[in-house]
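Posting here for the record, re: adenosine-5'-diphosphate.
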Amino acid sequence: MSARLRIGLVSALPTALVALLARGESLFPLLFGVASTTALATWLFVERPIRRRLLALETQRGELFHSHTTTVEDLRRERDVSSSILETMQEGVLLLNQQDQIVLVNPALRSALLLSAEVIGQALQQGLPRAEVNELVRQARASGKPEAGELVIDGLKPRRLAVRVNPMQTPVGSMLVVFFDVTEIRRLESIRRDFVANVSHELRTPVTAICSATETLLSGALGEPGSAMMFVQIIERNSERLRRLVEDLLDLSRIESKEYKIEGRAVAVAAVVERSISSLSARARQGRVRTDVEIPSTLPEVLADDRALEQVLVNLIDNSIKYCPPGSRVVVKAKAESDAFVRISVDDSGPGIPEQDLPRLFERFYRVDPGRSRDMGGTGLGLSIVKHLVEAMGGEVGVTSRVGFGSCFWFTLPSV
Ligand code: ADP
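Prediction output follows.
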């Protein structure tokens, strides 16, 4: 109720009372009117605004509570996502505080470095006593920039981890150390380096032979029929070796590339074996090596690419003819190994292969006797081409051999 209204009411009331009493009239209607007006005014000007204010405050409180709950939920969700990322990561993660104490280690790093839960809170040198990591952290602190290095882990399964130390802005002075497993990458790099070195070496030998034979011819030997013939034969032999090497390298790179597609069709093994043997019959006759076939007529067909299968067989039979002394025997056999696979083998009665060489025999350029292989026109790639082709057709390769008794190169193919 406004002050002016209140003063008006208060001053008008005694005058009205006196007038009524003078006239001898009842005071009740007046008093009733005053009371109801006062109650109405109180509700209008006091109670209603207070209630409205209270209601607004209540709504505000509700909104505040809701936004607080949402913020807490968001923070919890973010924390869950972060810890789930850290737990799922294959890379190891280590967090250090300003004093180089370990604050966090994710499960990948725990299992890679066999760290216990106690490392949390320990100094880096104590929790992870690896000089390489400590040195990288020291360098990153000194330079304020990321530092990278590698860590070799010995053991049953030796591994190589790339380590990257990243200084962080927040929390101030923290260091994030990330570990990646680069064992496989380094292994492939070393295979590639060896391969390039081997190819260069293999190419250099015939190229050098051709160059020096040509030079000798040009510097006078051309006029001497006896020596000229010898040098021309050197050139022919080495250019043939170069051709074979380039062909095998191209085959290998084609097979290893993603574009190489094996056309799997139902193939009758006996027919491909006959074709392979007849393409090598002149070489077998020349080396006085007998070739036989033992394949049952009931043999199921195989799911294969017949050109790839022929190349596999030619490489294996050719090796047997190449390495077996005159009078040896080579037998191509095939039998159903199970309901799902057919096993094909090339057995010979040749010199055999020492046991220590067997595990590496299918590697590129691996030879038991490099000199003999080169003399026989070998490139050292035949068996690795065999392995790639058989595996591309869904089979496996293997070898059993005993020095002095012969060798058995075998492979399997899915039967139809
Ligand atoms: P290469 O071109 O030298 O023959 P391969 O990859 O075909 O290359 O064979 C690798 C090596 O395996 C050969 O150098 C040889 O030492 C050995 N080898 C392969 N087949 C036979 C076999 N039937 N008997 C004896 N040694 C073999």
